[in-house]
Fold:
Amino acid sequence: MPVWPLLLLAALSVAGLFLGLRGWRRRRREARLRLVLDRADALQALLATASQRMAAWRGTVGRLAGDLGSGAQRALDAEPLFREAKRDLLQHRLWLQQKGLAASLAELDEAGDALSRVHDRLSAQLASLESAGDALAQATDAAQEAARREPPSLRRGP
Structure:
């Protein structure tokens, strides 16, 4: 029996194993890249939500007095955090555009982790902002109710 068919079969097996491993690594890398892009998209969506909430509440917060007003203002004073998050997002997007296709798995993991940390920090700040907004709505409702119960002779303004 000739040896060449066995050698050919062994060579084809090694080549198939090599190509399979290479394909597996490529798919794994692509999955990590997609994960980083998804995290960047999630951060961008959170930034848009935070920006809308801050714009909606900014005008009303200044009219609140006492602890409620200062708590709401502290939540809105986190604007530097939002600017920093936007900057981080833009830097990651630029890095992905320039080096994302050639990045190693470790680099992609690091980028994804960094985006997750920014997202978590921003989520906590947005939760604080939401809490301030809820307190603002309750205070406004209470003030309006008190104004409705006030006799007309005691009301200020027209």
